[in-house]
Design goal:
There is one protein chain. Helices cover 44% and strands 15% of the residues. The protein has 11 helices and 8 strands. Helix 1 packs parallel to helix 11. It starts with a strand and ends with a helix. The protein binds 1,3-dihydroxyacetonephosphate (13P). 1,3-dihydroxyacetonephosphate (13P) binds next to strand 8.
């Protein structure tokens, strides 16, 4: 059985006070309303990881995640955060290769492979993102590009290491646009990713959780999560509102 995961990517939003208010609402609502074994991850901005983690305490269902990490171990890299810092704060997850990092910060497949290695070496779970921009979807080469992204940053891993990775497929044209992929488009790409993993790793591919991201909302989550190869979601805007996010978690 693959892990079911719903992760909220808060991106660069909220004050500390707002972050803590949202967290306490989520703790209460999720305890009261969410059944089954879905894992919930709150990918907060770096400064809020520690306070939010303190609030969560020993919560079994909800964890924190970082939105990025450095490819370096330590040293003179002003403004960066290393995996060992995250580890020392008991942060179990880290998003790697979000399309906004690729697009605005020039992160490429090779760099992301290094970040994946660093995260795994620190025993963090990388949530590795892939996905095509609109022009690639329109050209019809989206499957090829996503396979290449997965290959460039993950195919150097051993099967044992790959098992510890979570993948998120986030078509760039669906991020923050309100335009979600149809459940068929999501399922098709998730199946392509899983088949590509199987071509190298065989049956291990069946154990990898693949999340969908891109305008996931309370009213489309159920249909997306019902797809055979969709194991949860990576949610941006809708993760900033407690009621909306909890409805998404309940949809799984
Ligand atoms: P939206 O849910 O706001 O489209 O963002 C998706 C995303 O980028 C999650 O990482």
């Amino acid at each position: 059985m693959r892990n079911k995961i719903v992760a909220g990517n808060w991106k660069m939003n909220k004050t500390l006070e707002e972050a803590q208010a949202l967290t306490s609402e989520l703790i209460g609502m999720i305890a009261d309303e969410v059944k089954g074994n879905v894992k919930v991850v709150l990918c907060t901005p770096f400064p809020y990881l520690h306070p939010v983690n303190q609030q969560l305490g020993s919560n079994k269902r909800i964890s924190v995640g970082a939105q990025n990490c450095s490819e370096h171990d330590a040293g003179a890299y002003t403004g960066e955060t290393s995996v060992s810092m995250l580890k020392s704060m008991n942060v179990p997850y880290v998003i790697i290769g979000h399309s906004e990092r690729r697009q605005y910060f020039g992160e490429d497949g090779k760099l992301l492979a290094t970040k994946v290695d660093k995260a795994l070496a620190a025993l963090l779970t990388p949530i590795f993102c892939c996905g095509e921009p609109l022009e690639i979807r329109e050209k019809g080469t989206h499957e090829q590009l996503v396979k290449q992204q997965v290959e460039e940053s993950l195919f150097h891993l051993s099967a044992e290491a790959l098992k510890k990775v979570v993948i998120a497929y986030e078509p760039v044209w669906a991020i923050g646009t309100g335009k979600t992929a149809t459940s068929q488009q999501a399922q098709d790409m998730h199946a392509v990713i899983r088949k590509h993993l199987a071509s190298k790793y065989g049956a291990v591919a069946e154990e990898i959780s693949i999340l969908y991201g891109g305008s996931v909302k309370a009213d489309n989550a159920k249909e997306l999560f019902a797809c055979a190869d969709v194991d949860g979601g990576l949610v941006g805007g809708a993760s900033l509102k407690s009621r909306e996010f909890v409805e998404i978690v309940k949809a799984i």
